[in-house]
Amino acid sequence: MNRTTLSLIACTVALAAVTGFAAFDPPAATGASAAGSATERPVERTGLLCPAPSFSDIADTAYTSFTPVTQGAGSGGKAALEAAAEQSADGKGGKGGGKQDKAVLTPKPPGTPAVGDTSGSDTPALIGTADGKYAPGWTVQETTRIAAGTGRGLQGVTCTPADTDFWFPGASTAEGRTDYVHLTNPDDGAAVVDIKLYGKSGAVKTTVTDGLTVPPHSSEPLLLSTLTDDAQTDLTVHVGVRSGRVGATVQAQDDAGGGDWLPAAADPAGSLVLPGIPKDATDVRLVAFTPGDDDADLKVRLASPDGSITPAGNETVHVKAGMTSAVDLGPVTRGEPGSLILTPTDKAVPVVAALRVVRGKGSSQETAYIPATAPVGRRATAADNSAKGTTLSLTAPTADATVKVTASAGSDGGSPATKTYTIKSGTSQDISAPTGGKGTYALTVEPVSGGPVYAARTLTGSSDGVSGFTIQTLPSDRGLVAVPKADEDLSVVN
Asked: What is the pLDDT of residue 465?
């Protein structure tokens, strides 16, 4: 007689808890899992990838690491950030792999942010891993200040996990733009990547961009304008991975308007939310693309503090299949913070979208990007906040929502502080986040009840008299993984 002691369901539970690769954030808006179908457990291992911050010799980059306190997480573990092997800026070859002389920072236990900084153009991409108590919700922010030149101002990006499919509406190969797509491979085997470009008339003819190899534990920046002779003001970049995994992010820099990181947009969907447009935005440009065979017609609404309005003259937008569409919305917020909500006029057609947001005028212009994002889910986390330079934006597009916001202890001490807010349906609110810590602190956003919530965080600052800003959206921090319940013993007895 043979007895199989490990059921298929039990095996699935164990794998999901260790890797965190199961489906995150089931759709229940209130935070409750479907009875008898799944339970949630803290992830036990996670990884993050931070792109090389700048090619400027006068760039100063700060890194902030934070893991929120998560009930049920283990007591041991560690987290670390290590340098990826360096590659040439044109992506044609490596300059040799290497380790930093020392880590940019040493992550601290849950509840306390850790900070570190570097300067100059030789700061490499970073590959991070965390396990045990450090893993659930681990968040690393990379924020760079550039005093002059292309991309001047403030550039910020939240380090992301590896994946296999990325969409970047809002890139450009126009004169005056210097846009790179950064590809980072965290694994022991090479990754094979395809890059496709789509402009206003459809697919853009490129040099060889199929089957690009990213070596193990390395990072490659590719200058988009070297991939094509076709200058496109508005471009959608698709990064697809044939084998392996990569982290992918676009660095979009403008000679006149500063620059910022353009993170991947949320997966193609019929309805999209782009949260956190600053109240003093002087120009907002919507860039959208539909990857399918059908055109998309979208209603455009701006969720403001007082409710949803339709921008005059931009009630709808038509997106032709396979072509990048762009719409100038101008100073759409008109002195009030807002979030853009896109919904189908009739038939839902999957779309990806992003906003290019400008503050200031003339030589004082600065630019940031807001990709369409997923809702907060169970919890979202934003690192690298300060008492004066942080704005948190919350949007409830379909129903009232109650949200708990917690500011962590600071990098220089202090205590956590929590406040609860109610966001009315169809509105977007800039809130004054609680503060109890000293120095740099982290924010966590946790929906308590009601409909889905979307969030973004804006950082403002200056360097040598040059002001700047950067915006990061706040989808789930991936701290919890939903796993099926093993309600029955499926052991087989022969």
From this structure: 56
